[in-house]
Amino acid sequence: MSASGRTFYLTTPIYYVNATPHLGHAYTTIIADAMARYRRLAGDRVWFLTGTDEHGDKIAQAAAKAGVAPQAYADRIAAVFRATWDRLGITYDDFIRTTEPRHQGIVQQILQKLWDAGEIYFGKYGGQYCFGCERFYTDKEIIDGKCPDHQTPLTYIEEENYFFKMSKYQEWLLREIESRPDLIRPERYRNEILGFLREPLQDLSISRPKSRLSWGIPLPFDDRFVTYVWFDALINYVSALGEVSGERYRTFWPHVQHLIGKDILKPHGVYWPCMLKAAGLPIYRHLNVHGYWGLGGGKMSKSIGNVVEALALTEKYGNDAFRYFIMREMTFGLDANFSEEALVARFNADLANDLGNLASRATTLIANFAKGTIPAPGPLTAAEEEIGTMWARVRGEVDAAMEEFAFQRALGAIWEFIGLLNRYIDGQQPWTLAKDAAKRGRLDAVLYTLGEALRCLGIILAPFLPEAARRIRGALDQTGDPHLADCEWGRLVPGTRAEKVTPLFPRVEDKAAAGLAPVGSPPREAGSDALATMDEFARLDLRVAQVIAADAVPKSRKLVKLTVSLGAEQRTIVAGIAEHYAPADLVGKKIVIVANLEPATLMGVESQGMLLAGSGGGRLAVLTLDRDLPPGARVQ
Ligand code: MSP
After folding, report:
1. Arithmetic mean of pLDDT, 58-75
2. Torsion angle, CA of 154/155/157/161, rounded to 10 degrees?
3. Ligand 1 centroid vs 558 CA: distance in angstroms?
4. Is there a catalytic annotation at residue 456?
5. In 10 A of CB 97, how many CB atoms?
């Protein structure tokens, strides 16, 4: 039994392995992590699942493009996802991959069950198909003859396939959603699904002929076909818990909540509940849907360029700051805009000024005026009572907000409390009280209150800013795992040792933030280098180059020899990237080179230029283009 008596099972989407993780994936996974941490803090029994979606056209195509087998490709990208989540401190309990036997087995079991029950039939279907989405679109959904998601032309495909009798569940699903107002939330997404259900629901094609696509799970009753990727992927939420008769399934499934982005609302809001119903399994408790991050707008976001680079900002500003920003900036359910400028603004205002200063000031005051030991509080006044009362309210608000995944509201409430405390210090002026021995009791009341507030913040902030919260607790000698139940006001024991915290979030100077640090150089200290002139920059001839061939340089651990095309000419470039890239993975990539460098000879090979790459956190990344340009194009 858990301390709270509650059980909580939370899932993220399983991400496609045709691309490496980016800001969007990180957002979902980070907020899921904050939620899982919050529920654990509250004493719930928690299971937090994430993973990768590895079958289907997209993956087969990406693997073919990289010149490797789909499984090898999936292995590689799945490992990148895992490593990214580990680096971001994501506390997932399980990571499922759809190519694992434990998943494939359950998918086949469910398919067989539905086939035996007559829920699946063989039929013919012709329609407009989007290869990007791997699904057919109905006439109503098509916009200007194009896929509404990818804005690319659709292809008419006619083929025989197996169909799941989804239409038969339309009425049931409608009633289910109507009778459970918070099943799909926030409400705008519930309304969207209700909108879909106003139109007749089609049956769902759940197979793909192997002749067209072999990278999938074979249908157990006809191995000329593989399972349609959505039918395969959705089942991960069940298969990750093992057999339906098993302990883990029985413990967690009745409490399942999914967290997804709005792009995949329909499969989760329509297909999945119908599939579960047909298979005789209960549907989810809640489907929690968030909005989309966009880039652009603010001027600094131009320097971010794409969503992948946005994720790289975790290295520049730290995991805690990145988590805080994305949770505070985006109202759950709505879209938001990402920019480095906005991140830096929040970093300085909320983290460096409000929280960072509070922690430094409070611990410094306790160190200076109470020799680093929490004093017994003297007589309390209305000011202390206001803080205690507000704390109780904040706890309630955080709890209510977290029930609804409203991270921005939870943080807003905590920051109101932080604001009150900073004003309290200014108002009480403990440094003045310290000058008058008769006011010792008042001074002790203030110092105790500050210590207690910090102790409580060190607990409640743990899901949101794990590292900063740990440091706050450490400064107050609070060891062991934090528990929400311990942040009852007034539990801080006089006599507790307290030490000064070093600044939790040193201010970011605006100049340093005015652009990403040049790739390859160590993170820049504000104002530490002389500024480059435009003329100096203009002397560099940067060009787009396409890698035609890549080979390891014999006897060198680090060097790779690249043959690149600049359109009109070919060059040889020797680059020190062999520890980070297999030569074959570079072939075909469009990279950026400095084309007017003096040639240099490395391990006997002449290098006629230099490629641009960035590094940080032990990783190296070669700069590529986020949109196609011809080889030889100038980069400026
Ligand atoms: N494989 C499917 C999901 C199967 S779940 C049974 C898939 N994968 S995905 O790699 O494309 O990931 C989509 C998810 O990534 C979104 O639902 C969302 O969680 C996240 N995001 C991707 N881009 C995003 C933004 N720009 N903004 C916010 N989140 C987005 O779909």
Report:
1. 94
2. -50
3. 35
4. no
5. 20
Please say if 103 is a catalytic residue: no
Spot the catalytic one: 65, 124, 150, 511: 150
**Structure tokens, 161:** 């396939």
pLDDT in tens, 72-88: 999 999 999 999 999 99
**Cα separation values, 582 from 63, 68, 99, 288, 590, Å:** 15, 12, 24, 40, 16
Residue whose tokens read 């139109």:
199
- Give the model's pLDDT for residue 165: 98
Task: Pick the most confident of 130-139, 219-228, 600-609.
Answer: 219-228
The model's pLDDT over 418-460, given as tens digits with 9 standing for 90+, comes to: 999 999 999 999 999 999 999 999 999 999 999 999 999 999 9
Is 147 annotated in the active site? yes
| Residue whose CA lies nearest to ligand 1 atom number 25 | 24
Crossing angle of helices 23-41 and 70-87, rounded to 10°: 50
Residue 519 confidence (pLDDT) above 50? no
Q: Averaged over 284-304, what is the pLDDT?
A: 78
CA–CA gap between residue 622 and residue 614 (Å, rounded): 6
Average pLDDT of 263-285?
98
Q: Determine how many CB atoms are found less than 10 A away from the CB of residue 212.
A: 11
Burial state string for 307-326 with b = 16 or more CB within 10 A and e = fewer than 16: bbbbbbbbbbbbbbbbbbbb
Closest CA to 14 of 276, 259, 347: 259
CA of 187 to the centre of ligand 1 (A): 20
Write down all domains in the chain, each with its CATH number in brackets: 7-290 (3.40.50.620), 337-535 (1.10.730.10), 540-635 (2.40.50.140)
Ligand 1 site residues, Cβ closer than 6 angstroms:
13-16, 24-25, 27-28, 53, 233-234, 236, 260-261, 263-264, 292-293
Ligand 1 center from residue 391 Cα (angstroms): 36
Atom of ligand 1 nearest to the CA of 53: 1
